[in-house]
Write a structure and sequence with these properties.
Layout lengths: L6 H12 L5 H12 L4 H10 L5 H10 L5 H19 L4 H7 L4 H12 L3 H7 L1 H15 L3 H12 L1
């Protein structure tokens, strides 16, 4: 039988490959987001376990690593999870929203707000494209340092 990764594992591995320089504290937050279907409550709990006192400290930690604020990062991770789910089992975002216990309109708006594209376009482009869009957003936040890191990592391969 083929070694097939679960959706959260596949997304986690994609993030680890794309963002290799994040601090261990930030990885703990990202892992909590990925494994909890991007629940910000779980991310806050993980932040407290990492010694962060409040949401402002969490935001500062993410900003220091070139990542967007917690709520936006959670939305990016949700989109990665949805597209990954779609690639494994093509289905509508309406149905995926139900599986994630979210209102479909919220999901469609999040995709449009973050990517600038409709779900039908994003799902066709795939996880790699969404990850690239996230990295571009991170690069815009940190003066393109993450984009340069990603490019340097490709040359090393």
């Amino acid at each position: 039988m083929a070694n097939v990764m679960s959706p959260p594992t596949a997304v986690r591995e994609a993030l680890r490959g794309a963002l290799p320089t994040l601090s261990p504290r930030t990885w703990a937050i990202l892992d909590a987001l990925v494994t909890s279907d991007a629940s910000t409550a779980c991310a806050r709990a993980a932040a407290r376990r990492q010694g962060l006192r409040d949401r402002f400290a969490l935001r500062r930690l993410l900003r220091a690593d070139g990542l967007p604020p917690p709520h936006e990062l959670a939305d990016w991770i949700r989109i990665l999870l949805w597209v990954n789910d779609y690639e494994g089992h093509p289905t509508s975002l309406f149905r995926l929203a139900g599986q994630y216990h979210l209102h479909p309109a919220v999901c469609y708006r999040a995709v449009k707000r973050l990517t600038g594209l409709r779900w039908t376009d994003v799902r066709v482009r795939g996880v790699d494209w969404v990850l690239g869009a996230l990295l571009d957003r991170c690069g815009a936040l940190s003066g393109a340092s993450i984009t340069r890191i990603r490019r340097a990592g490709r040359r090393a391969d």
